[in-house]
Amino acid sequence: MRSFLPAPLIGVIAFLLLLLNSLFWVPILLLVAIIKLLLPFTAVRLHLDPLLVRIAEAWIACNSGWMALTQKTAWDVQGIEGLDPRGWYLVNCNHQSWADILVLQHLLTGHIPLLKFFLKQQLVWVPVMGLAWWALDFPFMRRHSEAVLKAHPELRGKDQEATRRACEKFSLIPTSVMNFCEGTRFTVAKHQLQQSPYRHLLKPKAGGIALALNVMGDQFRAILDVTIVYPGGAPDFWDFLCGRMRRVQVRVQTLSVPRHLAIGDYASDPAVRDAFQQWMQQIWQDKDTQIERLLANRVR
């Protein structure tokens, strides 16, 4: 299929396979989620949550199947060896494209527990998938600018409480809490608007990852710092479906959980907040350097 069909036709076929896959699995997912909603007891969750995860992993496996059928991608991956699918992880990654999500799910499913993403509140209205994310207890966040939070500090508390409730649910069964610390996809325009000090990244936002560590720091086995590089340029979703994502480089670095920061009060203690942001900025500087090195090797 990849060799003789035109790219737009491959894109249509890939989209239909993704749609059919979702329409098959999401109703099953919702049925189990409704039972969980009607019986909101911990004992019930302990039985139904693993079932919901298996359904989601079946959806991901089918996605990997149509990706293999329609895509001709060279995968260059390092750092996923020795991870534990029965442990808890906090996963952090740079964000350039909607394809990032499918790349992460394709590579990490089976190596670590199911990824649970922090999502923008608006995404709950995405057809079909919004319901699936709700059923899987993905946390939906109303992200506000720092200026808005300064004018309305009570909004900061609401987001923190929503994150805390989500993370408490994650503590019942092994989970990988996933956060795109940039808060949005990288574009040149956003990079210039932010006056980002990094060459290939937007400024990181430490609040979500800080609260996740504060709530679940004792459970996390490690922090996985994931770097995704598209040597041919980050594809938009249509380019991805059309098979134009020719090569992907992924590097996964396992970091120790900073226990001294996890026990601090990020929201109320300026010293803890400064220390956390410095820790995050160092991770981001190392990531930026790694991206630069990977892109430089591309042309050799």
TrEMBL record:
NCBIfam families associated with the record: PRK14014.1
Protein name: Acyltransferase
Transmembrane segments: 12-39
InterPro entries (alphabetical): Plipid/glycerol_acylTrfase
Upper taxonomic lineage: Bacteria, Pseudomonadati, Pseudomonadota, Betaproteobacteria, Candidatus Accumulibacter
Record has Protease as a keyword: no
Domain Phospholipid/glycerol acyltransferase: 89-231
Pfam families: Acyltransferase
Top-rank taxon: Bacteria
Keywords: Acyltransferase, Membrane, Transferase, Transmembrane, Transmembrane helix
An example Gene Ontology molecular-function term: acyltransferase activity
PANTHER family cross-referenced by the UniProt entry: 1-ACYLGLYCEROL-3-PHOSPHATE ACYLTRANSFERASE-RELATED (PTHR10983), LYSOCARDIOLIPIN ACYLTRANSFERASE 1 (PTHR10983:SF16)
Organism of origin: Candidatus Accumulibacter affinis
